[in-house]
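Materials and Methods. Structural model of Transposase. The 53-residue sequence of Transposase from Methylobacterium fujisawaense was retrieved and submitted for structure prediction as follows.
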Amino acid sequence: MSRPVDPDAFLTTDDGRVCTPERKAERREILCGLQGAGTSSGIARQGPQAGRV
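The predicted structure was written out as tokens:
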């Protein structure tokens, strides 16, 4: 089963939704990888606390 990455997850914190220019910029970054290589799944398993990779 494929699980898409939710870009809005970068705007959600434990205290609610935080919408700042910096957070919006991070959610706009493009995720690149070989099809079927697990790129999206790997990112989806990381929480927002993992930071930028």
